[in-house]
Amino acid sequence: MTPFDWLIVLSLNAAIIGYGLYLARGTETSGEWFLGARALPWWAIGLSMFATNVDNADLVAVTGSVYREGLHIITVYALGSAAGGILAAFFITPAIYRAGFYTNAEYLEARFGPSTRLLSALIQLQYRSSMLGMMIWSAHLLLTRLVGLSAAWAWLLIAILVVLAGLYTAWGGLRSVVWTDTAQGIVMMLAAVIIFAAVWQTVGGWSGMSQTLQGSPHEDLIHIGRYRGDDGQTSPWVVVVAWTIVGSGYWTVNHTQTMRLMGSRSIWDMKMAAIWGVALSFPIMVVSATLGVFARAIPELSSLPTAEVDTIYPTLARQFLTPGLKGIVVAGVLAAVVSTFDSMGSALSAIFTRDVYARFLVRDRDDHHYVQAGRWATVGVLALGFLYLPFIWKQPNIIKAFTTLIPVFVTPLFTVYMLGVLTPVHRRSGLIGLLVGSTYGVLALVDREFYDVAAIPTWFTSRWPAFCWSLLFTTATMAIATAVLGRDTGNTTTWSEDKGWLHRSREALPVLREHPFEGGVPWLLQPRWAACLLMLAAAYVTLVLFW
Fold first, then answer.
1. Cα 308 to Cα 91, 209, 288, distances in angstroms
2. Which residues of 16-29 are buried (b: 16+ CB within 10 A; e: fewer)?
3. What is the per-residue pLDDT across 58-99, written as a single tens digit (0 to 9) for each?
4. Domain-embedded: residue 407
5. What CATH number has the domain bearing residue 94?
6. Are 475 and 433 in contact (CB under 8 A)?
7. Any alpha helices (H) in 358-462, and if so which ranges?
8. Phi, psi (5° rounding) for residue 40?
9. Number of structural domains in the chain
10. Domain containing 182: what range?
């Protein structure tokens, strides 16, 4: 890194962070802090969703995962994200938005009761804080391998970034996060294009890489349909379904994304924002993924040990970027770090403040008290990520850590949200299904990672089938409970304890808007057409182009 590179890095990120602090000045009410006063346009939300979706852990982990296992991970950013974004923006989040709720867990109390709400909040806090740990570790890898910082300086810089991101997030809430993410997303896209172009030229493009790998043990890496899991016996269709479940769960359960959708100025903006966010993420993540197979075509990088696969991205950037370009890529990486920290901080603090603190601990104080509680919670949830580092260190790569944790609680919770919105399952079935699905998830995790239970077959608990089994157990349990108890006919806009600050803050939200147009939505601007195109493109890339 030259002084000119450092100037680019510091200038771009300092400007964005300064902008976030500037925006934070006028935020006072809970509606402004938690939901940006429901005044955010689709294009800004979409860019923010992109910046949150494509974080620094993705840049590192996806490249390393493809280097080791192949391009099957593209499925989660193609079919998984398209299906999840459409499911979230067209069905699940509008139901929450129209009911006037602030968080997706808040909706679950109206639909399934307070216990389900609390469990959902705790699962999300665990799920996203574990992801935060993966992002912290990937940031450390990038700073030590790409920038060349010592471990001590890398940890110090990460701590500074956490503090700065936490500062403007705690002060400004969702509005500051969305607008800074918009700027960070642009820097990240520029960085992705630069490193891809440099590596593409080095290996002679796709044809050069394919020719180099032809006949080698790594030829199958460029075909999704040839990956058969860790054991070599898993059907590629099971892997595709598993990644689709992961992507769908990410866009619906993950409040870092649904919180942005609920800050939309209208239902139309919500739908377009999700399509825009997925559409931006899709090509950038395909670009990042292909870097993994390109690295296999570079002689000096073709045979790295398993423990080194997560260093592929910083190694490529260090070796093939010239001064100036390296500074832009590092700036993009740090922008990804900060955008993820602020997104996590705002979303998880909202969940803790509304779904745990205000609902179960301190029920009826004034609006200022809960805004302050949210600000302090931002600091606490960002610190949680560091607790997962020992577990992540023990995994062979970051993606393995991610896919090991997700089916435990997140997939059952995703199933509960989906069935709760789309079907008349009984009110009590949500808690029952969540407990049964999570019990399977814990059992499978113990069998995979800690103690091999001889009586349980591998196909029942291994990494990829676990997603399918988790969804199946939760769905079957809720269906059986509904068959016994009857269908739900209740009101999903309120609950028995709907009073105090939680109720007052909901009533203070702006009037719901279906769209921002004077008349109706023009035919060509109907979100369903864009959604269809997105799904077709995702299916083509996954099942044809890379199959």
1. 42, 21, 17
2. bbebbeebbeebee
3. 677 788 888 888 899 899 989 999 999 999 999 999 988 888
4. no
5. 1.20.1730.10
6. yes
7. 367-384, 389-394, 398-422, 429-449, 458-461
8. -90, 135
9. 1
10. 3-389+523-545
